[in-house]
Amino acid sequence: MADEVQRVYVASVDEEDGDSLALGCFSSGETAWQVLRTFLKKSDQMLLKSSSVVVWDIDVIGEDGVTILSTMECKDCPVCGRRTFWMDLENFSALCHGAACAAWVEESTIEPGVIDCGWPPIQFLKQAKDIEEAFKELFKIGDQMKAISQVDSLAENEPQEMLEDFENQTSSESSE
Ligand SMILES: [Zn+2]
Question: What's the number of CA atoms in the CB half-sphere (13 Å) around residue 135?
């Protein structure tokens, strides 16, 4: 009895042309998230629109049996330009799942209403008054990285090599 599955967690992604891709049906939410996150790392290789994790209660008829845990939308990353930037619109947070990037935007847990954003490869962290401003900050970094690299988007190992150049550039700029 104790081992009987009462709920299943289903992860899926939707392609731009409307097709839905099932990633599996799991006995724990953690596993479903893990599978989804791994998949999203390569989301720039496909044309994806959105993703979701839902939980189904077994033996419940109709809509009452399903609860949506998360839906996310796919965007081009403001920093690396790859289509690996996933936004959770409900409890606002966004993260680039692309290798060597991890640009993020999130409402501050300490100061509600304030939006934090960051780019871990250079330990960039900034507070913004709204989401728009946070994205502008990330786009600025993206532009600077592009200017340094002279290419439209970063290859997987390039950010590391560019960090020095970037740091030199910003330290001369931001002596406020
Ligand atoms: Zn990125």
Answer: 12
